[in-house]
Design goal:
Layout lengths: L6 E5 L1 H15 L3 E4 L1 H5 L3 H10 L4 E4 L2 H9 L5 E4 L6 H9 L4 E3 L2 H11 L5 E7 L7 E2 L3 H8 L5 E6 L11 H19 L6 E3 L3 H6 L8 E3 L20 E12 L4 E2 L5 E2 L4 E6 L18 H16 L3 E4 L2 E6 L7 E4 L10 E4 L10 E3 L1
Parallel strand pairs: 1-19, 2-3, 2-10, 3-4, 5-6, 6-7, 6-8, 8-9
Antiparallel strand pairs: 1-11, 11-14, 11-18, 12-13, 14-17, 15-16, 16-17
Length: 361
């Protein structure tokens, strides 16, 4: 069997390490390195190692299994789980692994305390300031005080999450920050130990220093894939390599792809690539809400995609797609090249989907 993968994501460890270093030097606060979603596509272990190499001492994940995997891999840094856990058995495993838990309300706090069974269980309290997903509502001080009165827990931090730190306007972010600070001040005035305050995610941390507080949570900046322009020269980590599996000639009048929508007008040399939508090639985010701004954004992306259709690169040449992008295989114009089966082309992938294989250089 051929030992070469037909497609893979090539990742530079030095780029990961450089991005982590630039972020930690820029924010001048402790960084909580978020490595959720399999390290944003570059692998949980490699993302965690990059943060640790930059001096990060706390890692954060969104699923219990990610936290337990980090421990099995030998990471001894603090690990913060950013979501609640309803399963007692899972809570028990997390406590044994010394994972810092997130408390989202009084019921959640009682579950964590029950699973503690006399052991020290560190928790961070989540406050909902506008994301609407997890946490005690910022106006509900009675519910927050009930959380802090729960016995058997050690409260070492409090956090919230920005919903629109990628927006052009700072107003939504400022509104959430003000809400969060009003909560922490009120708790401190009542004598409750709030611990480390953190709310800034990647976009906020790299745009607005006033959001830094005691620590920042940074994840997507590690792979250099932010939806905003920032001053740091972060590198986009990850180059997709796709193998040529066949080279063939299409004659004038031949059709390609499902529904035979593309008909070539002249004899065309094409390369069949092991590349498609399953690997994120040519995908476009669709609007989730039918707001005018979402529809306009979608139309803009569609127009841009028509004017600048997806293409691949090989030895400095741009090879346009011929016909439709397939789910697994796509044709590109190979005319004027010596491209042959077994060669690899470079393809842009906007969405960090988990590839069939990752290789680190």
């Amino acid at each position: 069997m051929c030992r070469y993968a037909q497609s893979y994501l090539e990742i530079s460890r030095s780029d990961l390490a450089d991005n982590a270093r630039m972020v930690t030097e820029f924010v001048k606060r402790p960084v909580i390195g978020v490595v959720k979603c399999d390290g944003y596509g570059v692998s949980l272990a490699e993302a965690a190692a990059a943060w640790v190499s930059a001096g990060v001492r706390t890692l954060a994940v969104s699923e219990p299994q990610e936290a337990l995997t980090l421990r099995r891999l030998g990471f001894q840094e603090e690990i913060l789980l950013l979501s609640p856990v309803p399963c007692p058995e899972t809570l028990e495993a997390l406590i044994r692994a010394r994972v810092i838990l997130t408390v989202t309300g009084a019921d959640c706090a009682r579950r964590c305390a029950a699973a503690a069974a006399g052991r020290t269980v560190r928790v961070h309290v989540a406050v909902d300031t506008g994301m609407g997903r997890f946490g005690v509502h910022w106006r509900d001080m009675d519910a927050l005080e009930e959380v802090y009165r729960t016995e058997g827990l050690t409260f070492t931090g409090i956090f919230s999450h920005f919903a629109a730190s990628f927006a052009r306007s700072e107003r939504p972010t400022r509104r959430q920050l003000d809400r969060f600070l009003s909560v922490t001040r009120a708790l401190e005035e009542k004598g409750y130990p709030v611990g480390v305050r953190h709310i800034a995610n990647s976009c906020a941390a790299l745009r607005w220093p006033e959001t830094w507080l005691d620590a920042v949570r940074v994840g997507s900046a590690l792979v250099g894939r932010l939806p905003v322009t920032i001053s740091l020269p972060l590198r986009r980590v990850g180059v997709f390599r796709a193998m040529v599996v066949e080279r063939r000639t299409l004659h004038a009048g031949d059709t390609t792809g499902y529904a035979s929508l593309c008909r070539v007008r002249r004899e065309t040399e094409v390369a069949v690539l092991s590349l498609g939508r399953h690997s994120g090639f040519g995908l476009m985010n669709r609007p989730e809400l039918l707001r005018p701004v979402d529809l306009l954004t979608c139309l803009h992306r569609l127009l841009r995609g028509c004017l600048h259709p997806p293409a691949v690169r090989w030895e400095g040449k741009t090879l346009p797609v011929v016909g439709r992008i397939g789910s697994q295989f796509t044709l590109v114009d190979a005319g004027g090249t010596c491209l042959k089966p077994g060669d690899y082309v470079c393809a842009p992938v906007d969405l960090m989907l988990t590839p069939p294989e990752r290789r680190f250089v």
